[in-house]
Amino acid sequence: MVIDWSDGNKSSLYSLWLRDHCQMPESRNLDNGQRLFSVKDLPSNITIEKAYKDAEGNVCVMFQPENHLSVFCQKWLRENCYELNSHFEDRSEKSKKLWKKDSFDNGLPFISYDLMHSDDTSKVLALRSLREYGFFVLNDVPTQDGQVLKVISELGFTRETNYGALFEVRTEVNPNNLAFTNLGLGSHTDNPYRDPVPTVQLLHCLESSTEGGESILVDGFKAASILREESQENFLSLANTWINYRFSDSKTELRSRVPMIDLNDKKEVIKVRYNNRSIDTINVPQDKMRSFYKAYRHWSEIIERDELKIQFKLSEGDLMLFDNTRVMHARTEFSKSGKRHLQGAYSDLDGLYSLLNRLEMKNNND
Ligand code: OGA
Ligand code: ZN
C-alpha cells in the first residue's frame, strides 16, 4: 500500500507488515494493546484487496484470503510507518551528546538531591543528563548507611549481585577486588564478567578525608568514536573480537565472553566495556592476535588521554550515577591517612528511562 502524505512524504507499506500491525480488537487486547496472534497464524499468501479512506479519514484495508478488514487511524500510520521512522531509540551513540573534558561550558551536571524532591523538573534534568551525557551527580544526599538504595528506589530498581544489594568501597584487608584498596584505578566499566552487565552504577560518598581519591569519568562512546576516526581497522577489530572476562572469589565464579565495543545493525556503538583488571585469558585466533593487541593498545591509550577525562573529588554527601555501558570511571590513589568510604550499588537503565519517559509524557500532556 502506498501513501502520499499531504506534506509531500511517501510511504510504501508491505502487505504482511500492515496485517501484522492490525490495531483492531480481534488483533490486539483492548486493555494493554498487546498482540493476540502469532505471525504464523497469518496466511503466507496475504494480499491487499482494496484500501480506502472512510468518512472519518481512517484508512481501511481489506486483506485476502482472510477477508479481514483493518482500520488504521492516520496518526498511528504516520507515527509508525517504517520508512519515515527509521531511527529507533536503542541507546546508540547517535542519540547521545558525546563529550570531552572541555565540553561542559555550563558546568558539570551536579543536581541538588533536595530539589529532586520538591518538583519533577530536577528529576527530569537529572535523568536527561543520564540519557544525553551518561551521568549526573547528586549533592547533599544524606550520608546515612544504605541511602544509595533509597535513591535507587526513587528512580528505578536495585540490581542485586554477589557483592550484595550494596557494597562498601573502602580499604579492606585481603580484598576480593582492587576497588577495596587505596590503589588508583584506571578508567573502567564495572562487571564486564556479568551477563547482562548492570547498566547503571551509583557511588555514594559517606566519608572523604584522605588526600587523593579523586573521581574521573570518560565518555566511552567518545573514546570509541575517536578510535574509529583514527583507525577504522582497530575499531572493527575490537567490535569483532570476543574477549573472556572473569571474576572469581571463594564463593563466586562469573564468566562472560563479549566484545569491548558493541555495535547495532547500523554499525553505531551501543555499549562499551573496558576493564583491564577482569579480562580473563585472552583467547583469540593466532592470526588475529597481533591486530587485536594493536587495537586494544590504541583503545587503552585513547581512554587515558587527559583531554577526555573530567576529574572531581566526591565530597561527603555526593552521589555519582552513571551509565555503565557507556561512561568509564576511575579514581586516583589515596593516602592511608584519613578515611574514604563510598557505598556503591547497581541499577538498570530500563527503570530510569521508563520514569523519564513517563515524566516527559506527563509534561507533554500538561
Ligand atoms: C568501584 C570503583 C571507584 C572509587 O567500586 O567500582 O571503581 O572511587 N570505585 O572508589
Ligand atoms: Zn568501578
Automatic annotation (TrEMBL):
Pfam families: GBBH-like_N (PF06155), TauD (PF02668)
The TauD/TfdA-like domain, residue ranges: 119-346
Cofactor: L-ascorbate; Fe(2+)
UniProt entry keywords in alphabetical sequence: Dioxygenase, Iron, Metal-binding, Oxidoreductase
GO molecular function: 2-oxoglutarate-dependent dioxygenase activity; iron ion binding
Annotated Gamma-butyrobetaine hydroxylase-like N-terminal domain residues: 1-78
SUPFAM superfamilies from the UniProt entry: Clavaminate synthase-like
CDD domains xref list: CAS_like
GO biological process, one term: carnitine biosynthetic process
NCBIfam families listed in its UniProt record: carnitine_bodg
Family statement drawn from the similarity comment of this UniProt entry: Belongs to the gamma-BBH/TMLD family.
Record-given protein name: Gamma-butyrobetaine hydroxylase
